[in-house]
Amino acid sequence: MKKVTAFIGSQQKKATYRAVQEFERNLKSYEEIDFEYIFFKDYKLEYCKGCKLCFEKGEENCPLKDDRNLLLNKIYESDGVIFATPNYAFQMAAIMKNFFDRTAFLLHRPRFFGKTYTVIVTEGIFGGASIMKYLNSLGKNLGFRVTKGCCVKTLEPTTELQQQKITQEVKKASSRFYKELTSSTTPTPSLFGLMSFRMARTSIKELLDDSNMDYCYFKESGWFESDYYYNISLGFVKKLAGGFFDFLANQMIKHR
Ligand SMILES: Cc1cc2nc3c(=O)[nH]c(=O)nc-3n(C[C@H](O)[C@H](O)[C@H](O)COP(=O)(O)O)c2cc1C
Known about the structure:
Strands 1, 2, 3, 4, 5 and 6 form a six-stranded parallel beta sheet that branches. By secondary structure, the chain is α/β, with parallel strands linked by helices. Helix 1 (15-30) crosses helix 7 (160-181) and helix 8 runs parallel beside helix 10. It is globular and about 60 Å long. The protein has helices at residues 15-30, 53-56, 68-76, 94-102, 105-108, 128-141, 160-181, 191-207, 213-220, 236-254; strands at 2-8, 33-39, 80-86, 116-123, 145-146, 150-153. It has two domains: 2-181, Rossmann fold, CATH 3.40.50; 191-254, no CATH class. Flavin mononucleotide binds at residues 10, 12, 14-17, 86-90, 122-127, 154. Residues 3-148 form the NADPH-dependent FMN reductase-like domain. This is NADPH-dependent FMN reductase-like domain-containing protein. Keywords: Flavoprotein, FMN.
């Protein structure tokens, strides 16, 4: 059975929670799913101090002792994750952003390949589209298989028409998520994804050494030699583009 975890940025069990509940109902109409709700408010998560020990020496050196690993384990144990947040001042709720700050080392050493990811944003009036865009970009950079989520308007009192739109949007988002969750094909990277990988690995290889965790992680993962983070046939054009990105990254480092 597939395991799906919803991470919720709202402090209340209101609009965001209701949207996730609809999403869950839709998913379960396809097949039995082990579905878990995680409210960030129920976990202890300190603010990042910016010491960079996680980047440089490894995440186990973080001086903050709290529920970070417990939350991360929830992702490791899941086949799919949903990040659901209200729009607060044109951004995700701070409590959720804090989680992404505390796990930013994963942007250097992504590891969620094969796991499906989507986003639900609820808002009164405006700003949610850019939050979705940002959260999608985080998901991609963390290695997830990102599917288009939804941004729904929840201005109170909710009209019948508004509720119908929410139901429709959530239904479409859950259908896309389910399709990816159950897909057996390995996605080929986009040109941008390929460029990000090649630029990152060249910088890490040329500028760091084995006293640095990013360097060791890339080396142990075989990423200094591989075409991409995971085994995938790139095809002629992307293979060529990959070589060009390696060359470009080397030039940029030489002339910085
Ligand atoms: C502090 C705060 C800031 C908000 N900022 C925005 C905003 O910038 N744009 C917007 O459209 N809605 C904004 N809203 C409305 C919420 O995004 C909306 O009501 C959301 O559905 C609340 O989710 P919840 O019921 O799960 O708490 C804000 C609400 C709060 C409490």
